[in-house]
Amino acid sequence: MVELRPAASLSTERLADLFTAGYEDYYTQVQVDAAALEYMVRAWDLDLEAARVAIRDGEPIGVCMLGVRGDESWISGLGVVVHERRHGVGEQLMHAVLDEARARSVREVRLEVIRENVRAIPLYERLGFERTRGLELWLLDGAPGSVEEIPAAEAHARVRSLRTHREPWQRDDGTVANLDDAIGLGADGGAAVVRVSNGRVSVQQLAGTDDDALRTLLAGARSLGDLLVFLNLPEGHPAGPVLAELGGRLEIAQHEMALTL
Asked: Strand, helix or coil at 169?
């Protein structure tokens, strides 16, 4: 019999191990340690009391994480260990977490799923989730360059005034507000907010009036580390062609899906 408990009932280390095990044999490598999980909880407003873990015979076998901001929420990960898959554990976890979202007066729940994940997509559709748009993960190798650094708050304000696409949860205004190590970048006609950790430059937000502004910002941002990562860039965003021009590669394509509660 499977027991569902709040994710907060596990230590950070054990929860990180479970999250990693739940994504074993996934379409892309997922490796989460305690420090990474603590960052996710803080930056993405993950609610560990609302999130759920599945336990069988005293051993954790699955996890479903939930972020909550006001009346919006986001499934930040659903994973089940390999030997327990295809037994309905993921669906039990999703039902439990959606009940927790309703109890918190959440209006909408969003998630992302890799397009090749033919097991998960039907589950989400049975639960009532609908596809809303495509999202892309872009990678760009680091290269020498220069960029104007400005206060992160100033860069964020510029982006908000210029952007034309809604940001995904991991990079939206709530996330940027939670960062204490954000770096602002400026250019004529544009701005970006990035975070640099262990040689990895994560683009949090980016907007510009034209390709020249986006090119200046991305070329400068890549100079801050060994690898630039642009997570969940909406399909059709003008930064996509600029990334391709600079030698970037489209690594993963996802469906964003949403459920109105």
From this structure: helix
